[in-house]
Amino acid sequence: MIKSFADLDIYQLSYQLSIDIFKLTKSFPAEEKYSLTSQVVRSTRAICANIAEGFGRRVYKAELKKFLVYAIGSLEETRVWLSFAKDCDYINEQQYRDFTNKTNEIGAKIFKLYSNWK
Q1: Tally of CA atoms within 13 A in the half-sphere of 109 that contains its CB
Q2: CA distance 75 to 72
Q3: Which parts of the chain span the membrane according to its record (predicted)?
Q4: Taking a C-beta distance cutoff of 8 angstroms, is the pair 74, 44 a contact?
């Protein structure tokens, strides 16, 4: 039974993505601290934060859906920053594919929750 946002599979996946990205960025160059590193960490944190906030407002169907849309937007932003990281050689092709697969899974689950929420 789902009692809190933390019980949602989609929250758990997006939270883990956020943690994984945070750890990954520890290896980014220092000059990226206030640009790429900050952007990708903030965008991944926004995914799970928006899911949690939307769940907290779930009594109003439109509110939950609005925050799921925000989560999808942050997910897409994360994908852009990961592309930058790959193209700047901060992550390798395999890491990029692994993160792309995770973002694809999360995006599909957010969309499913959005579509099925009554």
Answers
A1: 17
A2: 5
A3: none
A4: yes
Structure tokens at 93: 């092709």
How far is 16 from 10, CA to CA, in rounded Å? 10
Sign of the Cα pseudo-torsion (41, 36, 94, 104, in order): positive
Residue with tokens 């883990």: 16
Contacts of 77 (CB under 8 A, 6+ apart): 39, 43, 46
Q: Which two tokens stand for residue 5?
A: 């946002």
Tokens 């994360």 appear where? Answer: 78
Domain count, the chain: 1
Render pLDDT for 70-108 as a digit per residue (tens, 0 to 9): 999 999 999 999 999 999 999 999 999 999 999 999 999
pTM of the shown model:
0.94
For residue 16 the two structure tokens come to: 């883990």
